[in-house]
Amino acid sequence: MVANPARRVALADAAITVLGEQGARGLTHRAVDVLAGLPKGTASNYFPSRAALLLGAAERIFVRLTPEDSRVGEIEASAGDDTLVDYVQYVLERLLAAPQLALALIELRLAAARSADVAEVIAPFLRAGLAADVEFHRTHGLSGGTDRVVLLHHLVDGLVLDRLTVPLQPDRDPADVAAEFVRALRSR
Amino acid sequence: MVANPARRVALADAAITVLGEQGARGLTHRAVDVLAGLPKGTASNYFPSRAALLLGAAERIFVRLTPEDSRVGEIEASAGDDTLVDYVQYVLERLLAAPQLALALIELRLAAARSADVAEVIAPFLRAGLAADVEFHRTHGLSGGTDRVVLLHHLVDGLVLDRLTVPLQPDRDPADVAAEFVRALRSR
């Protein structure tokens, strides 16, 4: 196998599209080859197991959701108490602007629930992501330790699941929901 | 078609199992007939469209998750400020004790995101469920109007998605996470 980074990215992006459009059950190496317009067997060369393919998709989702440094800088420069509100709203904004990525993340978790092999590779990846986020909060002076950051993750996950599927309050701005939540935590 | 309520329930239960085990994409009338051990075409007789089948599953999930009156009574009789903590913990307990139902609810939402026909029947059902929950909170003296109840739904959804798939903090008791959240809201 010749390592071709661009091809690897194209395959991971195709895997994300399949996950977002068809759900985890539709994700096969063959479906990825077809969508990427590559010969049968290409996805298997780069990602030898289904778990590896799902991990490749997960890594690529996080790359594509990476915050822009300039925006994070703006948020940091903004007024004190509302920094965490702005930051969580920015997380939410990125997820809602990329429905396919956000839905694929949910599908990845569901795939992990159904397969121990998938859970084994996805769990350490997601937990490392949490640890990195806790460190980001710490170095950027945002309040919270691990427990608080996990609460924020749960709220954002629940809110994204709601907004991208069947919004219970379609007329309410999700940014306001996030702000209400962060302010409630801050007052503790 | 002869209406047979027990058969309708058996079909809805089979639909839930398929949803929970295989995801929304695996849910076909044929898969439900096979799992229920009924002749081909039975599920189609009771639920003429895929959207009707998903609504049947949704209705049955809510029936199966109905709280026990005796437990709600106990919670109501408990000390004032912690009533909402106890109630949310009871909601969480029921969902985590029935992983198949909880995962099927997430799958229903994902199916609605992928099909306007499904969204059209699932959305009013879920919104009616929210209205009933807001009314339950009001009549049981639990604080919060619609906005607060929706925040609770988001948190519980995010927490359930986490615990039933890839728990970010596997050693932490989810009941404690729910309590931390409700107490944060109460202090506002």
How would you sum up this structure, described in words?
The structure is a homodimer of 188-residue chains. The first copy, chain A, is mainly α. Chain A has one domain (5-186): Tetracycline Repressor, domain 2. Chain A has 10 helices and no strands. The longest helix of chain A has 24 residues, at 116-139. The radius of gyration of chain A is 18 Å and the shape is elongated. The N and C termini of chain A lie far apart (55 Å). The mean pLDDT of chain A is 92. At the A-B interface, helix 7, helix 8, helix 9 and helix 10 of A face helix 7, helix 8, helix 9 and helix 10 of B.
List the helices and strands and how they pair.
The structure is a homodimer of 188-residue chains.
Chain A: H1 5-22, H2 29-36, H3 42-46, H4 50-64, H5 69-77, H6 83-97, H7 99-114, H8 116-139, H9 146-164, H10 174-186
Helix pairs in contact in A: 1-2, 1-4, 1-7, 4-7, 4-8, 6-9, 6-10, 7-8, 7-9, 9-10
Rg calculated over all Cα atoms of chain A: 18 Å
- Chain pair forming the biggest interface: A-B, 48 and 48 residues
Low-confidence stretches of chain A: none
Count of DSSP helices of chain A?
10
The class by helix and strand makeup of chain A works out as mainly alpha
Give me the strand/helix succession of chain A. HHHHHHHHHH
Largest sheet of chain A: none
Overall average residue pLDDT of chain A? 92
Q: How many strand segments of chain A?
A: 0
Shape of chain A: elongated
Protein name (chains A, B): TetR family transcriptional regulator
Pfam family, one (chains A, B): TetR_N
Domain HTH tetR-type (chains A, B): 5-65
Keywords (chains A, B): DNA-binding
